[in-house]
What does this fold into?
Amino acid sequence: MTAAYPALRLRRTRSSGWSRRLHAETVLTPADLIWPMFIVGGEGVEQPIDSLPGVSRWSVDGIVARAKEAHDLGIPCVALFPFTPAELKTDDGREALNPDNLMCRAIRAIKDAVPEVGVLTDVALDPYTSHGHDGLVDAAGYVVNDSTADLLIQQALNQARAGADIIAPSDMMDGRIGMIRSALEGEGAHNVQIMSYAAKYASGFYGPFRDAVGSRGLLKGDKKTYQMDASNAEEALREVALDLAEGADSVMVKPGLPYLDIIVRVKTRFEVPVFAYQVSGEYAMLEASVAAGAGERDALVLETLMAFKRAGCSGVLTYHAAHAARLLNG
Ligand code: PBG
It folds into this structure.
């Protein structure tokens, strides 16, 4: 033995499967997953979404079946997004407040059939507006903060009354978390949680989602006056601090993989539950690389999800949730 050869060998603990398992610093289980799904009207309907290969819109009966599947797979929570036909879209997105809209019907159906599964609902007007923005637009095309927040409160209450467990405002209006929290408290909805999309970036990775909810061709301009700029990290910490002070139970960083640094900083600074949204464009990118023969799906899915856990996430919203849970359940 020469002095150049090491006695301390980090490969030692990697040398067998049992030892790698024993030394794993991070675990990923189906309980870390939130499964986002798209609802469409009708019955017995499944509509594949071209830009999200492997993901479909389902009518309420199919959504209930997926929620049961989630339960069987050990996935604790589903996230719901409605496809709204053009005739129900208006400037003010008023269908969001209809107590019998598709969202509310799906929430009630899931809570009837599988009450053990948590239901997370998105608060933002974009599925319902004719211009595709998350709020009300003034004559100059600006998304107005305070009157939008007034509507978002009503949308959140509408979802909570239908049985939503986690209200997830994704609109990025200032002040809405505190306003929604006090409205929920005012109705005695003390245990309805708020997961704030606290650090949500104006991202190029949302394209397939906009197809899925039927707002792709409609969006006028972009969302840069309310969603964050990719160059900013300190601002993300300020957003998180505000949402926590206003009463958020957990916070989200979105998109996921391109913003792992933000996740680490939020977790380190605030020590609160942090979630990542691995968004539609990330899903599509991974699937495209599999289709091109550049990578192997199962490995890519588990590696990316593990990255979120390693960065400090409590859980991940991912369109690969069911597939990942099947892999993890062996
Ligand atoms: C609505 C909303 C969006 C997403 C979730 N909620 C789109 C957007 O902000 O334009 C995107 C999710 C995804 O891409 O998977 N405000």
Notes: The beta strands are 33-39, 46-48, 56-58, 77-82, 118-123, 166-169, 193-200, 250-254, 274-278, 315-318.
